[in-house]
């Protein structure tokens, strides 16, 4: 494909190498049912972009990965060195972007510093120097696939693929069978990983679930059998929430998603109050709710959930305010909300992507304006490319506080900054002084032991610490309050795990939707 000139900003609206919308004003403030307008906008964009239009009817999703990213006209603007770095890092960490991200979100005039570019395109420093050097040497000499894969797998195992004990301590059992497509860490909430939903419309370079996407089955959570989920929730009256997660469950066709959700509704479980869907589809492919050929069906499915009296919590993942700026995402949010679903928003705080108070306050303000509830600011987890993205805890708290101070009460609903760590979700409350000593105040938001919730505790002040494991208890204490019990729980889990057997992969097909 030929080289394209960068688009220029016009009237304060960003344009990029993917095609200029000449009549933006006509598409502002779209109502949910104005999807034809979006189709028109998309046709215009496609016809101007130089990328062949896939469909006259609706925006066509195209993914770009290691195998075809060099075909993107915008990528031709990167130096050969930058393209090589993408190739090297993507041999180890997952890489996928798509036509919407490339054409409508990334500001190619600002690449390589553009936050959405960094969100999807691997960067050299996302690997440790020694790992990068090793893989680059293989790529340079054209090593064969098996050698590259073996080296990639060894590096991956050095990147803490399962942080916070999720493989060893979160997998529940039914009888003596380990349910390897589920996690149950907090009393009220069970996570379910539908096997058809273990990919995403694009991959975030920081994703802590990266092992789901690299083809190492032994690292992956996935499950087809909804009946086991139903049985598990029935057997656990303390469970009120089921979270469908992945990957991204919204990658599934509606009929597949329905095969997981309908059995839960039909089982009429008295303890089930909330179905949560963890998704970044609004950020990465809003056309899923607008113009995809089963968009209306998925909204009907949402309506069935809410009509059954179950709360549908749409746990939307947005990392940067730009993801909230397109007409498509605004219309998609409105359509999802129309079904009775509540949209809660969350994101990790990531250096190079969103590490400023202004980014967060803009994001929270805009989310509230669009009818979403800011829910969590997380911290970069201790896995994958943490060294590239992490922000010290003290700095993270300052960013949270400055953002929080600058928004009104209705946007102050987010919790954080929070670490999803071994014992639970730990919030950084801030830096303070106790009897003249500078300390870091923390609070357990959710714990493996439900009784730990909301317990405050103190750590020695450490401006460089990036994770709970870097912190030491303040005031001469030897351990944090949860450590002894956590150790005991982990030892008991280990015994249980040795006595249980993994769930057999079912050869049966999913039950048909009634
Ligand atoms: S959308 Fe979520 S699961 Fe998918 S890559 Fe991004 S963070 Fe990971």
Keywords:
TIM Barrel, 16 helices, 17% strand, alpha/beta, 3-stranded mixed beta sheet, 514 residues
What's the gist of this structure?
The protein is of the alpha/beta class and 514 residues long. It contains 16 helices and 16 strands. Strand 7 (241-244), helix 9 and strand 8 form a beta-alpha-beta unit.
Helix content: 25-40%
The CATH level-2 architecture of the domain at 163-416 is identified as: Alpha-Beta Barrel
User: What is the CATH topology assignment of the domain at 163-416?
Assistant: TIM Barrel
**Molecular shape:** globular
Low-confidence runs of at least 5 consecutive residues: 1-29, 48-56, 505-514
Number of helices: 16
Secondary structure category: alpha/beta
CATH level 1 name of the domain at 163-416: Alpha Beta
Strand content of the residues, in percent?
A: 15-25%
Number of strands: 16
- Give the distance, in angstroms, between the N- and C-terminal Cα atoms: 47 Å
Biggest sheet: strand arrangement: 5-6-7-8-9-10-11-12-13-14-15
Average of per-residue pLDDT values: 86
SSE blueprint:
Elements: H1 35-49, E1 63-65, H2 80-89, E2 96-98, H3 99-105, H4 115-120, H5 129-140, H6 145-157, H7 166-169, E3 173-174, E4 177-178, E5 182-186, E6 189-192, H8 226-235, E7 241-244, H9 254-266, E8 274-279, H10 281-284, H11 295-307, E9 311-317, H12 327-338, E10 342-349, H13 357-369, E11 373-379, H14 386-389, H15 393-405, E12 415-420, E13 424-434, E14 437-447, E15 456-460, H16 483-499, E16 501-502
Parallel strand pairs: 4-16, 6-7, 7-8, 8-9, 9-10, 10-11, 11-12
Antiparallel strand pairs: 1-2, 3-4, 5-6, 12-13, 13-14, 14-15
Helix pairs in contact: 2-5, 5-6, 8-9, 9-11, 13-15
Residues 200, 203-204, 207, 209, 246-248, 280, 317 line the site of iron/sulfur cluster.
